[in-house]
Amino acid sequence: MRFLPTLTSYAVATVAVTSFCTLAAEHHAPPQLATTYVNDAILPPIIEWHGKSEALLAAPDSEWATPFEQNGLKTSPNYDDTFAWIDKLISQTNMLKKVSIGKSPQGRDIWMIVASKEGAEDAATLLKNNKPSVLVQAGIHSGEIDGKDAGMMLLRDIVIGDKTALLDNANLLFVPIFSVDGHERSTEYNRVNQRGPVNMGWRTTANNLNLNRDYAKADSLEMQHMLRAINIWQPDLYIDVHVTDGIDYQYDVTFGYNLAQGQSPSSFKWLENSYRPAIEAALTAEGHVPGPLVFAIDNTDITKGMSLWNASPRFSNGYGDARHLPTILIENHSLKPFKQRVLGTYVMLEATLKTIGDQSTKLKSAIQQDKYRYSPRVTLTWKQEQQEKGWDFKGIGYSMQQSAISGNEIVRWNGEPKLYPNLPVIGGTKADIKVNRPTAYYVPPQWTEVIERLSVHGIRMTTVNKPSKQKLQQYQFTAPKFGSKDYEGHQRVKAEVSSQNIEASLPAGTVRIDTQQPLGDFAILLLEPQSPDSLFQWGFFNPIFTRTEYIENYAVEPLAAQMLKQDPALQAAFDEALKDEAFAADPKARLRWFYQRSPYYDNQYLKYPVLRSN
Questions:
Q1: Are both 488 and 521 inside the same structural domain?
Q2: Which of 20, 161, 554, 602 is 20 to 30 Å apart from 523, CA to CA?
Q3: What is the domain range of residue 532?
Q4: Cβ atoms 523, 374 nearer than 8 A
Q5: Which range among 70-74, 402-406, 457-461, 600-604 shows the weakest confidence by mean pLDDT?
Q6: Nearest residue to 81 via CA among 93, 60, 67, 64
Q7: What is the pTM of this model?
Q8: How many domains does the chain have?
Q9: Catalytic pick from 144, 280, 286, 331?
Q10: Concatenated DSSP letters of 237-262
Q11: Rounded to 5 degrees, what are φ and ψ at 153?
């Protein structure tokens, strides 16, 4: 189906392929025109949309139209054009400051716009105004760029328009482009399932890392900069703007956060009972269709229900839950036109500033409760279970058709709204592996990369200045299983875990991490090996699985005879082991049995170097 542009009184029927770097009035050459996106013909039917939020659009020839508005609501500006426009806006006011949170691997600044009534240009000054701050980041997946254009419009209306009052009771920290290098790997052929903008950035960084898998391990320079910025600027709310994949449905703006069963239950209550009603009311009033995050259990059979996602700390919302920073994941619907998605995001961001301004005390109180809860038992993994309440899902009708190309049945969406009543909802809400909260962890000084990552996260640590001995707990691993392929630059690993109490000799330089600190829960999730986003499972400790010392057969044979002669109990244990026919028939296993029980064996093999104090 061809996409015929829907234009308001503010938009003209000329749709530019490329964006402008300055105001429309300053251009001499007419824009190149386009009336469709390159992928329109292969996408499901479009549902025509008009909403009150269209009144937010500036006329394309107005002095302060954004590049998005200048070019027919179909394009998004490149990096240089984005900040050329923003710099012009900043020059008109003292309320906006531009701060670099760091440079990308290709040398681009990751800019953050600080918007406050007082014109704060550093974190210390901003914190003094005692207003809640919301950090909004766009373009963590840089093709999913709706938040950038919406944020530019909102900043314009705060500075030039009639929305200055939004900063009366709140501050805005706005990162227009997080994955700046990926943003510049732009083409009209990047996101086949998404309706605009015309040119879209790439999903991953220049190092091919997915930033929304990087929060826990913090490999990328971009993520390290963002984590430091969060620690320095201390936002009270974090919004991560995406565009979703998957199925067709009626919702245009979906959003969510981690669950009541997570590490931040008080923040969840505020988000669910105070924030969501206010935001959904604002979106609905402006003609949008808000909803929770949509993840179908089976994209080919909607009746199987929806998945309720309990994200781990590798993701933005899971990270926010772990570090007690209320974090909202926006997933705009990729099959809705770019204009509709941008306007929905604008409405949500505006309503967010109003809401946190009105509810600052409740929000800050919820965060404090979570930070200092110090639960004695911490859940590391969750099992799936059906939720008590189903979902009356606002879907789109579809049929299944046999494909001559793939040989499979494929979904054909028909563009007709359809309600799927009371769909089952399956979520990771049943606690699985739990551990007792240790008093502290001890990381030996040689594990420098681990210590550095903990520091990047802002986890408080102290250093043991002289050697000491302590009674501590140590994990030991058996049956390690390594990932069959690389994942995000790592070979992940899982293993069976047991523990023992030991008297440990701690060298000078050992780092101690107290778990009774604001980021104590997050430290536990990073350092407990059974946690899915532990540094252990990400492979930071993989060298412990390498055998580096061996014993030759000619030496172990007489050693084994000597051991048996000196220890009758060992002889009895060996006789018992020989009852296993496979063991008895394996000469190497028999010799290894003695080596492992000899004083020559590596006593650190398969043992976790991070120790626990109970």
A1: yes
A2: 602
A3: 441-542
A4: no
A5: 600-604
A6: 67
A7: 0.91
A8: 3
A9: 331
A10: EEEEEEE--S--BS-SEEEE---TTS
A11: -60, -45
